[in-house]
Design brief:
Length: about 350
């Protein structure tokens, strides 16, 4: 008998006996086997765009832990790269991009070679799809336009988002051209990931929380709604998880109006509020503080239990509130997996 994968069951609104679990950035530097592959590769982007390597590191965490999903190893910044922007990842500095600052700079971007440049991601997805452990689902992903645009305009990570806000608030008409371009190419890219074997999609809007209310509606929520609409029009069955990190009470607007199947909660979202206001509308995912996974022990166990007690009676996927950090002890991840899978509603 074919039993539906637990993650897919939850995303269709069911509550399977076992709470499914995966972890954002589950492939990464906290794993020695990841560091070994990374050391042998020229650069981080080369690793993302070499299908054998991307597939290998995607599967690494699933060999160690009984995770319910593999998330394809890639990065949200492959989109600016495929649009022709210069993107590098520097040791200890994170991503560095040749920043786009003016309308004229937009003219340097082109979607013409996009499909070809991102074909290795599709190839990696096909490899992983053929090698998944039983019961595990394959997740494809992309960044939401606001977050991707922030790296494109700031030239990397930012503390105050001064350049992107100056543009978005000061000249919304020309800023919209960049957002519209990103909606277009991101929707196409996500559809291609589905065709290559992704069974679930997640849209990361890591910096949605830095916007004012109206800015959030226009530059974070609306473009995400449009991507969800386009992808679902093209591939109706595919479940979509949206992660608008840091938006606080505005999570309700996403539950109400984004058309997604699940919302990924950051660690600051109050659990009772999530159960009352959000879970009646969408499945939820989250939201253990990644630093509790570093700390481990009773602090980690108590908070994980509190999350499960509050949210696991409805459609729920256990995850972190943001990605795993490099200093995370591997044993803590193993203990968390045991705790979540041992949980009975
Ligand atoms: O979750 C997974 O295991 C899949 C892989 C994945 C990566 N990045 C790999 C990665 C995913 C889903 C992402 C998404 C991503 N990338 C986001 C959204 C989620 C979030 O964390 O907010 C963002 C904002 C980026 C951009 C990015 N990529 C930054 C800011 C950095 C530097 C930070 C760091 O940890 O070094 C990266 C690099 C990156 N992406 C690494 C990994 C494993 C580390 C690079 C390395 O190995 O040297």
């Amino acid at each position: 008998m074919l039993v539906e994968k637990p993650l897919l069951q939850v995303l269709s609104g069911k509550t399977p006996p076992r709470v499914p679990l995966w972890l954002m950035r589950q492939a990464g530097r906290y794993l020695p086997e990841y560091r070994a592959v990374r050391e042998k590769t020229a650069g981080f982007l080369d690793m993302c765009l070499t299908p054998e390597l991307a597939a290998e590191v995607t599967l690494q965490p699933l060999r160690r832990f009984p995770l319910d999903a593999a998330i394809i190893f890639s990065d949200i910044l492959v989109i600016p790269y495929a649009l022709g922007q210069k993107v590098t990842f520097e040791e200890g500095r994170g991503p560095v991009l040749e920043p786009i600052r003016t309308v004229a700079d937009l003219g340097r971007l082109s979607a013409a070679r996009m499909t070809e440049m991102l074909a290795p991601v599709e190839a990696a997805l096909r490899r992983v799809a053929g090698a998944l452990p039983e019961g595990a689902a394959l997740i494809g992903f992309a960044g939401a336009p606001w977050t991707v645009a922030s790296y494109m305009i700031e030239g990397g990570s930012s503390r105050d988002f001064a350049a992107i806000k100056r543009w978005a608030y000061g000249d919304p008409d020309s800023f919209r051209r960049l957002i519209d371009l990103l909606v277009e190419v991101t929707s196409d890219y996500l559809v291609r990931q589905v065709d290559a074997g992704a069974e679930v999609l997640q849209i990361f809007d890591s910096w949605a929380g830095v916007l004012v209310e109206r800015g959030l509606d226009i530059w974070a929520l609306a473009p995400t709604v449009e991507i969800v609409r386009r992808v679902k029009a093209a591939r109706p069955g595919v479940p979509i998880i949206v992660f608008p990190r840091g938006v606080g009470t505005q999570y309700a607007a996403y539950a109400e109006g984004s058309g997604c199947d699940a919302l990924s909660l950051d660690q600051a979202v109050p659990l009772d509020l999530a159960r009352r206001e959000l879970q009646p509308r969408v499945a939820l995912q989250g939201n253990l503080d990644p630093m509790l996974l570093v700390a481990g022990g009773a602090a980690m166990r108590d908070e994980a239990a509190r999350i499960l007690e509050t949210l696991a009676s409805g459609p729920f996927v256990f995850n972190l509130g943001h990605g795993i950090v490099p200093q995370t002890p591997v044993e803590h991840v193993a203990e968390l997996c045991e705790l979540v899978h041992g949980w009975r509603r």
